[in-house]
Design a protein that fits this description.
Blueprint (H helix, E strand, L loop, with lengths): L1 E7 L2 E6 L1 E2 L6 E11 L1 H7 L9 E2 L4 E8 L11 E4 L9 H4 L23 E3 L2 E5 L9 E5 L3 E4 L5 H4 L5 H12 L7 E5 L3 H12 L4 E6 L2 H9 L5 E4 L5 H8 L5 E6 L6 H7 L1 E9 L12 H5 L3 E4 L7 H13 L5 H4 L2 E3 L4 H9 L6 E4 L6
Parallel strand pairs: 5-9, 12-13, 12-15, 13-14, 15-16, 16-17, 18-19
Antiparallel strand pairs: 1-2, 1-5, 3-8, 4-6, 4-10, 4-19, 6-7, 7-11, 8-9
Bound molecules: zinc ion (2 copies).
Length: about 375
């Protein structure tokens, strides 16, 4: 089967690989669509500690083609979205109700949860990112990450729910539990930031303030109806404008969806006393440097992995919102590519030319 393999930093190319059948607790899927996420780009560019050669891609959605021993609740032909969160339901964190912090999650090891791999080229072992490696025609994934979705649902729109879109929605709806009527600041208006704004709007936040350094991204946030106000951080003093927009008080919630040096500090700075900051993204090794007086003002600072969702509870809820027309995934997942066009997809993501790219194995539209 064809898969996009990265053998060295900055390089990725389609190769023919052999794929083993699913092991216990795993399933095989025929990938129909897979989102192109900033984490894939960071992995490609050597900013994440991954082994190589590796098949990148971790927002896979497809059709179940094989069931490993012991898999229950899924059938051949089911459509599934494969979340980056594959909770074991048995460890300390899963049993205390925090499946996103499952102690068996093995995101950057390149291996399945049992420590082995499923991909080969001849005798050579090939790793897979986030136990799925979905830049491929086929993938073996833990059944625990596979969330069944309705057959009529378009997987090229839903695949972002595997990671990026759920991360943004969950940051606002699950991690922060944004309250109705509140003022929300989102720093970084890319795919995850826009998803965060969508989540805050679904929670009926009153003021949605998007911050970015790229005017086109701010314009897109407004065009999608996701921002009541925008701030161009290259031209305006973000904390000052947020204070003005919030009656001199500061924001109730602030999200750092940019993840570059200084943006988490900015999220904390724009908060009112007692407000909540959530760090979502990071690009490489970013550190937090804030005066402790900021937290002495009762500010809460936390982060999220994957939006802190329980995939089997929240992804069906998000899909339902989409099918009822309340979640504009069509506006987010705006560009599709063939697998052979992956380099162009990465270039478009890097340059901010698309909101969210999708590799489609059926019928690409561009
Ligand atoms: Zn667990
Ligand atoms: Zn991702």
């Amino acid at each position: 089967m064809k898969a996009a393999v990265s053998r060295e930093v900055g390089r990725i190319a389609v190769e023919d690989l052999a794929i083993a059948g699913p092991g216990p607790g795993e399933i095989g899927i025929r990938v129909e669509a897979t989102g192109v996420c900033h984490t894939d780009l960071s992995a490609l560019e050597g900013k994440l500690p991954i082994p190589r050669p590796i098949v990148l891609g971790h927002e896979g959605a497809g059709v179940v083609t094989a069931l490993g021993p012991g898999v229950e609740g899924l059938a051949l032909g089911d459509k599934v979205v494969c979340s980056i969160i594959a909770p074991c339901r048995a460890c300390f964190q899963c049993t205390r109700g925090d499946p996103a912090m499952c102690e068996r999650i093995a995101f950057y090891t390149g291996r399945m949860q049992d420590g082995t791999t499923r991909l080969r080229r001849g005798e050579e072992e090939v790793y897979s990112l986030s136990y799925q490696g979905s830049f491929a025609e086929e993938a073996v994934v833990p059944a625990a990450c596979a969330v069944r979705v309705p057959r009529e649902a378009p997987l090229e729109k839903l695949c972002g729910l595997a990671c990026g879109v759920s991360t943004g929605l969950g940051a606002a709806m699950v991690r922060a539990e944004v309250e109705a009527g509140s003022t929300v600041v989102v720093i970084g208006a890319g795919g995850v930031g826009l998803s965060t704004l969508m989540g805050a709007r679904l929670r009926e936040a009153e003021r949605l303030i998007a911050v970015d350094v790229v005017p086109a991204k701010l314009a897109r946030a407004q065009a999608l109806g996701l921002a009541t106000d925008v701030i161009d951080a290259t031209r305006e003093d973000v904390a000052l404008v947020v204070r003005e927009l919030s009656g001199g008080r500061g924001a109730d919630y602030a999200f750092d969806a940019a993840g570059v040096p200084g943006t988490a500090e900015q999220a904390i700075e724009v908060l009112r006393p007692g407000g909540k900051a959530v760090v979502i993204g990071r690009v490489g090794d970013v550190r937090l440097d804030i005066p402790t007086t900021q937290v002495l003002r009762h500010k809460w600072v936390t982060g999220t992995f994957g939006g802190s969702i329980d995939p089997h509870r929240h992804i069906p809820e998000f899909v339902d919102l989409y099918l009822r027309g309340r979640l504009d995934l069509d506006g987010l997942m705006d560009t599709s590519y063939a697998l052979d066009d992956l380099e162009r997809a990465f270039a478009d993501l890097r340059e901010g030319r698309v909101t969210r790219g999708v590799i489609c194995f059926a019928s690409p539209t561009s």
